[in-house]
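Now for one specimen:
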Amino acid sequence: MALNSESIRVLVVDDEQNIRDGVKRILKRMGLKVDLASQGEEGLKILTREKPAIVLLDMKMPGISGIELLGRIREKDPAVIVIVITGFATIETAIEAMKNGAYDFIAKPFEPDQLRIVVNRARETLRLTREHQRLEKERRRTLADLDTEKSRVHTILNAFPSGVVITNTHGQVVLMNQALRVLLELDPCLATGQPIETYVADEGFCSLVKSISSGKYVDFGDIPTYEFNHGSEKFLLAKGQPVIGEQCEYLGAVINLMDITSMRVMDQVKTEFMAKVTHELRSPLSTIHAQLTMAINELVSDDAGKDHKLLSRAKEKTQGLISLIGDLLDLSRIEAGTAALTTKPVQLGLLLKDVVDFLNAQAQAKEQILNLVLHSESMPPINTDPMVLESIFGNLITNAIKYTQNKGRITVEAEFAGGQHRVNVTDNGYGIDAEDLKKIFRRFYRVKNEKTRFIIGTGLGLPIVNGLVNSLGGKISVESTPGEGSAFSVFLPTEKSCELPQSTLPLEKY
């Protein structure tokens, strides 16, 4: 059954009218039905009413952001093909959108032919998907059945522009398409049936494939994406889902591999540019800050109060800019993989004691109680750069002090259990709303309400913490209740590891 173009409806969501009108003219000539929306809320209404098969989505719009709208579209109908429209300045957002389920992206400004190519590719994918669904209804297959009808299934798989590999429950490759062979530069004569390690040397990727194949993930939404290098200059993004049989049993996994090299190259250029600009700004700002300090110290006259206030405000602002530049340089080092420069055994308990002692003056200024509790008498050292650990826990404790009212309480707990270190930083402060909780690890995002709007910060502390924890092979989690407090938990291995077991230390609740 061929897919009739007239049956395909496309929704264009973009706040620029000339873009909407131009895209509509091009798609109409392609025989497609087109609906237009100028913002996210309008797009959601049309999505519910008209049920389009393809959505062209701008990332930068007023109201609902493109990323948020993408998430809602995926919730409403995961089968909708979403093509992201983005400018070069939002390439990082485009990468995030691809990770969150976008099919493809097209950069502004684009030529009509570029739009036609991307939409035709989506239309062909839609046709193949519907054809595959029809074949599935005709004959219920297990993976063993697929092996007996390779030629028919290969025709479908080979039409996909990205690499596809299907494994059984033991992580052995059952099928793979031609695009995968090209991506991985495999020998055209290399047969299937071997463990996934035979085809891909990356340990983390193979571990993910085996975990999905064996049914480790109960909630499919928890299955992570995975990026890795193939060779020295190629970056690949892997997304996978388990294959489920008629009796809800696990039959294996299907893994999709996409080449994101061009996006990574642009991301690297952006990172290098940011590092250079911030480095050049730090020196003059530091000089201005020092001169302001000298000027304030020299104000001794009785009527200098107004001048003192103005200069103090200027000094405060320059200090904020210097802190921002320092945070941006930290992010550049994390992205460049140079966050940890000096690796040596570090006693976590002693390091936490030094950090808590140093920050206790800040807590005392707000009449807060800052305590350190070590649940394990003897903890093995962590092989890492001590500056990295100081940055992680210094940021978390400083945040707890800032976002906790006067006379509040902050507790730092540490233990070693199940082969890993766990550190909790808990407070009985302002807490974080559920909506904000999803966004706190985004760059420059700050929780703003009546209680926190006067708190000075860059919005980069938690993204830096998250990046550093990930670089150590650890993970970070947070629980919070508005008006009651927050609890951040950091899990760290003694050596860099892919999987960390759960700790026995419960989160303290206020």
Summary: The longest helix spans residues 261-297. The chain is about 45% helix and 20% strand. Confidence is low (pLDDT under 50) at residues 497-510. The radius of gyration is 27 Å.
